[in-house]
Design goal:
This is ATP-grasp domain-containing protein. The protein is an alpha+beta fold and 76 residues long. The protein has one domain. Helices cover 16% and strands 17% of the residues. It is built from two helices and two strands. It has a two-stranded antiparallel ribbon. The radius of gyration is 14 Å and the shape is globular. The termini are far apart.
């Protein structure tokens, strides 16, 4: 995959043989920001461009990641 920067989101589908294919790329912030509800400082840094080059912000996983969030709560 080519290098990317900024706000970008990829949608994947897992195929029958176990590989993942890209369905689409969204070059903007998406509704998935709720996955970062427990990382508010890191999310704010990423949105402001304060994440070091090459560092990846990893979202929460599991059922706790489905907790709804609001932009106001994330940016406190």
């Amino acid at each position: 995959m080519p290098a990317t920067s900024g706000q970008v989101a990829f949608d994947f589908i897992k195929t029958a043989n176990g590989s993942c294919d890209v369905l689409e790329c969204n070059p903007r912030a998406t509704s998935a920001f709720h996955l970062f509800h427990n990382l508010p400082q890191q999310l704010a840094a990423a949105l402001l461009g304060d994440i070091p080059p090459g560092e990846t912000l990893r979202p929460s996983t599991g059922l706790s990641a489905m907790k709804p969030a609001s932009a106001g709560r994330l940016m406190r």
